[in-house]
Structures are given as structure tokens and as C-alpha cells.
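Dataset card, provenance and construction

Sequences and ligand SMILES were collected as paired inputs. For each pair, a complete structure of the chain with the small molecule in place was predicted and serialized as C-alpha cells. The example below shows a pair involving adenosine-5'-triphosphate. Curators did not alter the output after generation; any descriptive sentences attached to a record were derived from the structure itself.
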Amino acid sequence: MIILLGCSVGGSGKSTIAQNLAAAFTHKDKSVVLVDADLRKVTTRWGNKRKRNPKLKRIDVRQHHGNIASDVALLKQQYDVVIIDCGGFESRELFSAIAVCDIMLIPFRVRRRDLESLEDMEEIALKAKMHNLSMLMFSVLSQCPTLPTQYPRIWDAEKACKSFGLPALKSKTFTRNAYDDSDEFGMSVIEYTDRKACNEIINMANEIEDIFKKMINGDAIL
Ligand SMILES: Nc1ncnc2c1ncn2[C@@H]1O[C@H](COP(=O)(O)OP(=O)(O)OP(=O)(O)O)[C@@H](O)[C@H]1O
Ligand SMILES: [Mg+2]
């Protein structure tokens, strides 16, 4: 399974979700490779910190740049799960990864500036479908507000995503220090101390796995 994290908005949570999903699938005993396709090497640095901690389960992190389609297709034959972290802009890496991925996740914060880019992402989605008919694209709401009074903003964001043909995953991440703090040690939130953050990522990995199973079986997903 190839999962691509991409979005034209910077800082929406691509690297954080890519790293945490990589750890979640590793803990599900899948072989996982994390492809850092962003020249700023944020995920590579996370992988290097992780390597220095012998208590953590090993995750292979590799850098691929330019047209990464054939490299990624090759990795799919070697690993159960390939997760690609693309930078926050439209790039050769993003478009070549779109051509080969199974599931593309597009993180948005529940903020107007992020959601304004839904229109651009819809355009990318329409083009993507011309090159990769079988892939599925979902929004992921990231860094959601934890205050219940703010939940209507989350529901509105979900509606906006759906209206642009990019339905949101049921699982989402909320704003929690654990995401920032665990990163410092090359850890994921599932190896850290915040049970709520841990459950968010476990639920997301389970939801993606279910979607992929349905894709393989040709079952209805939405
Ligand atoms: N759920 C969360 N709660 C709190 N902080 C978060 C959460 N998700 C991400 N962050 C923090 O937000 C910042 C941006 O996240 P991240 O680097 O994952 O975004 P990105 O989309 O990869 O950015 P870029 O476009 O620059 O590659 C980081 O400091 C990260 O620790
Ligand atoms: Mg990033």
C-alpha cells in the first residue's frame, strides 16, 4: 500500500502524520518505509533521531527526489506500507507520487487559510484521476481544536472538504503537545505519554487499512 501525504499548504501536518502513521503500521507488524520527498529533510531528521534510540522499533527512512514514481513502485514490492512525505508545494515529487499512490491524504487545519486551498487541491485531484484511476484521495483534519465549543468549526470543515470532492477521514488529529514533543526524540505519539493522541493515530491507521482492504476487494468505501 502506498500512502501519500501531500497538500499545497505549508505546516498542515503532512510530516507529523506521515511519521506517526509509519510508527503505527510498524507497531501493527507491517514492514514500513518512509519516503522523505521534501528537500528540507524534516522526516529524515526525525528518522535519524529515532535511529539513536535503540528502544524504538526501527523504521526505514529514505530520501527520493525529482520523479519518484519508479523508486516508489519498487519500494511497494519490498515493503507492506510505503508512506511518502511531500513538501508543502506543488512539485515534481508530488505529481510523480500521485501517479503511483493508492491513497492520498491531504491534511488541513481547521483554519480558513488552509481550507481556502481546497479549490486548488480539487483541481489537483481532478488531474490526478487522469493519471491514476484507482487512487483515492481524502482530506485529514489536523490540529483540530480540543474545546467542545469549537467542534462546529470541525463539522463545517468536514462539510467543506466533502463539497470539494475530498471527503475527510473519520479519524483526525487534535492539537496536542504530544505531537510536537514526541517528535523531538524521533518518537511517535503511540510511543509517548498522551493516550488521546495515541488513539487518534491508531484509529487513523486502522481506518486507512480498512479503506485499502475495501479498495482491493472492490467494495464500496464512501
Ligand atoms: N496534532 C498536532 N498537535 C500539535 N502540534 C502539531 C500537530 N500536528 C502537527 N503539529 C506541529 O505543527 C508543525 C507543522 O507540522 P508538520 O511539520 O507536520 O507540517 P507539514 O505539513 O509537514 O509542514 P511543511 O509544509 O512545512 O512540510 C510542527 O511543529 C508539528 O509538531
Ligand atoms: Mg513537512
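Derived descriptions for this record:
The pocket of magnesium ion (ligand 2) is lined by residues 14-15, 38, 42, 85 (CB under 6 Å).
The radius of gyration is 16 Å.
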